[in-house]
Structure formats: C-alpha cells, structure tokens
Give the backbone structure.
Amino acid sequence: MKNIGFLSFGHWSSSPGSQTRTAADTLLQSIDLAVAAEELGADGAYFRVHHFARQLGSPFPLLSAVGAKTNRIEIGTGVIDMRYENPMYMAEDAGAADLIAGGRLQLGLSRGSPEQVIDGYRHFGYAPAEGESDADMARRHTDVFLQVVEGTQFAQPNPAPMFPNPPGLLRVEPYSAGLRDRIWWGAGSRATAEWTAQQGMNLMSSTLLTEDTGIPFHKLQAEQIQRFRDAWATAGHAREPRVSVSRSIFAITDDRDRAYFGRGGQESDQVGIIDGTTARFGRSYADEPDKLIEQLREDQAIADADTLLLTVPNQLGVEYNAHVIESILTHVAPALGWR
C-alpha cells in the first residue's frame, strides 16, 4: 500500500491553452483540485512554493482553505524555502492551518531551489550571518521552527499582561500537538538525507539530485532513501519515518491524453548544471496503462518510498488534472500493489 497524492507547482499565465490566467485562478483551482482528489480517493494535496514568480507563493492561506474544504486528505508543501521564513510567525501560521485541517498538515521544508531574482530572501529581510551561507541560514531558521512547533516554552511572561497567563514560560500559540512529527525536509543529496534523519524530519526526496554518480536517477534516489533510513535508525528516533518521491506519470487512456502526452515520457534521466553543481533529473512516464505498469515496476525509488506525489500540469485545469489522478488510481495503482 502506498500514499498517493498530487504535487502542483501552481503556475499561471496568459499563454494559449492555460486555464489558470491569474493568481486567483490558480489559488481557487488548487482548492477545487484538492477536493476532487479527496473524492477520488487520493491521499494528499501538496503545493510547491516559489517567490517572485507567477506560481504559488504564501502557502498558509491556501493550506487553511484546503483544510476547511476537505475532511481526510493530507495537505502539504513541497517545499517551503526556509531562507525566506520568519520561523516564529511561520509556527503560528502552521499551527493555525493544522488545527483548521484537524491535524492533516504535512509540511515540506528545504533550503529552496534556484530563484527568480538574485538573493530574493534579502528582500524579505533575511541575510546570512558572517561566515554563514544561505543554506546555513535556512537550516538555522528550520532549527528554530522545529523547536517552536514542538511546543517549547521559552518566553518570559509579562508580570502585568493584558490577559491572564498560564503559569511558567510561554510558547507560541496556537500550538498543534503532533505537527512536529509531520515536518519533512526536501533533500537533494545523500548527505542531506542523512542530516534530515538526524534532525528527526521525514524525507521528501527531491525531483532532482545535486550529484551524479553515473547510475540511473531512481537507483541513486533509492540509495539516498536507504541512507536516510540507516541514519534514522542510528539516531534512535522512536517513531517510523516517512519518505516521499515525486514523479510525472501520465496514463494515456483517451484522446486528450494522446494529444498532450502521446509522444511518451522523457524515457531517460537528464544531467545538467544547477547553481554551478552537477545535477541528475529523473525521467517522466507517459504511456498506455499496461506499458506504464511495467515501466514503473523498474523504478526502485518509488518502490522504496511510502508516499508518491504525482506532479500535475495545473494549467490544464481541474477537470483534466482530476482525470490524470483518477487514471493512476484506477488503471495503474492496483496492478502495482499501491492500492
């Protein structure tokens, strides 16, 4: 059995064929797609976060709205760039969104991806300390956030407050019990996956890995997952961790699918340069269900993960993306033992 959700990058544009022409279109359709996915039996609705881009940015209003409109489905991010975040204010937003959703929030965090602007986090008021990289700053923000969502009481109460205080030091409110165990880190390397395990966060394995050992992406990703689980066991955490991978997977079942994806998926990995670092990108899948099933059987990382996030072309609209999700759930997942 496998948790199957979708991951939307939340694009909007005025290009021909786009059904998301404004930010409002994208936000409202994101809510509608989450509702549709829940009705279809999917397990998760996840959203990518980018700044200074015509894509989903501030995640918590959207997550709260989805939480209020759904009842069962997990709601998450993949991922929030922690270089941009005030960890205290983020903890308040996350606690509120999780309470609205009834404890269904699954927050993916990370150092972030290449940006639309130069050092965009500086425009948000954040800069690395002396001798610190932007990645170090993201981890510093994350460390504070993790302590706060755990419910750590640290603030000295005012002796003459406007409202009565409970005894002792105070914590950030609202606090949502259990949220700390539902924090994920988007890891783009094997070493980062090991660090993720040491911090007690779940692993959200990236859609690309910032290293290339010459072996196929899915095998390198499977090695990353195993290193994460080994490091988790060494750290001695009490609970079982979760692991997610993301894939573009399209089952070709009708004329719309053939028009959009009939030429097949990207049948091999790609190797490129990201921020001056060699990176390996995984392949995509598009084929008729029986052929798709055989191809996916060979993907070792999907087999090793407990959660699969289907990246969806959100600009094609809610109806088509619901069809994409339903096709995987009905034509592919049962044959692979995912359902």
Remarks:
- The longest helix spans residues 217-235.
